[in-house]
């Protein structure tokens, strides 16, 4: 009687290959979904924060924290003065002064002054003193939501937040936040602290020349002085006062 030989079990070579492909696909999908979720969280949180600060005062900014840390690390005295002041209590002269000094087309542009950017680019490419073309809207977006720096990544985020605050806040709120958050002296932030520090008076009662004095130091408020100023700052004050007349009556709904 013939004995039956056991039939060998068929083995399919490469059964593990589909598993590895599946594994590869799953890792790719995980990475893809990670970035999608991160993007959604970023957009959600950024829009929510812009909406929040449309109604809530901005009591501190990243720059304020950075300055405190810098002074601590350098063993310098930490001076910090900042109080929120509604725009109704901030002198119209100061509002006109920063428009005349920093952003002449603030009331009319959509967040960006492309002519000013082009002039800045041409000036810097010719090796002249570095100048910026940032609008008040861009400066506000940077001060409130971002860090200092000149990388393309940060500039891209600045543009993104500039669009958001133009759409959600509007011009009057942008000016209010700007005048309450910018650095106006060494450890001095916002119109309330600046008028008290430089002129010993409240923010609603500035004369055109006093307002021009604060606006004149904004390029470097830790170096320049609004009172007892250098001849350079005095010339800037006079120019700003002249240009304030051209600003005329401020209408934040003029766009």
Automatic annotation (TrEMBL):
Keywords: Cell inner membrane, Cell membrane, Cell shape, Cell wall biogenesis/degradation, Glycosyltransferase, Membrane, Peptidoglycan synthesis, Transferase, Transmembrane, Transmembrane helix. It is a single-pass membrane protein. Its main location: membrane. The keyword Glycosyltransferase applies. One of its GO terms (biological process) is cell wall organization. The chain crosses the membrane at residues 34-56. Residues 1-15 have a biased composition (Low complexity). Residues 81-244 form the Glycosyl transferase family domain. It is found in: Cell membrane. SUPFAM superfamilies: Lysozyme-like. Residues 1-24 are annotated as: Disordered. Its EC number is 2.4.99.28. GO terms for cellular component: peptidoglycan-based cell wall; plasma membrane. InterPro entries: Glyco_trans_51, Lysozyme-like_dom_sf, PBP_transglycosylase, Pep_trsgly. Peptidoglycan polymerase that catalyzes glycan chain elongation from lipid-linked precursors. Belongs to the glycosyltransferase 51 family. This is Biosynthetic peptidoglycan transglycosylase. It comes from Flavobacterium cheongpyeongense. The lineage of its organism: Bacteria, Pseudomonadati, Bacteroidota, Flavobacteriia, Flavobacteriales.
């Amino acid at each position: 009687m013939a004995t039956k030989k056991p039939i060998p079990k068929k083995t399919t070579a490469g059964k593990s290959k589909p598993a590895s492909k599946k594994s590869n696909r799953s890792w790719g999908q995980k990475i893809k979904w990670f970035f999608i979720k991160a993007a959604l969280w970023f957009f959600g949180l950024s829009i929510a924060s812009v909406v929040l600060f449309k109604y809530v005062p901005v009591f501190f900014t990243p720059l304020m924290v950075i300055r405190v840390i810098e002074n601590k690390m350098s063993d310098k005295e930490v001076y910090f003065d900042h109080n929120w002041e509604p725009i109704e209590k901030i002198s119209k002269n100061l509002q006109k002064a920063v428009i005349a000094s920093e952003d002449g087309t603030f009331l009319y542009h959509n967040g960006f002054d492309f002519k000013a950017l082009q002039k800045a680019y041409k000036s810097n490419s010719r090796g002249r003193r570095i100048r910026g073309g940032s609008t008040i809207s861009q400066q506000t977006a940077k001060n409130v939501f971002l860090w200092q720096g000149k990388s393309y990544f940060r500039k891209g985020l600045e543009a993104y937040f500039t669009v958001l605050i133009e759409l959600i806040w509007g011009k009057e709120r942008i000016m209010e936040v700007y005048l309450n958050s910018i650095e106006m002296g060494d450890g001095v932030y916002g119109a309330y602290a600046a008028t008290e520090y430089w002129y010993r008076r409240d923010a609603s009662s500035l004369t055109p020349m006093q307002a021009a004095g604060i606006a004149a130091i904004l390029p470097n408020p830790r170096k320049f002085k609004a009172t007892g100023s250098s001849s350079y700052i005095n010339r800037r004050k006079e120019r700003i006062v002249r240009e304030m007349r051209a600003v005329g009556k401020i209408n934040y709904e003029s766009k």
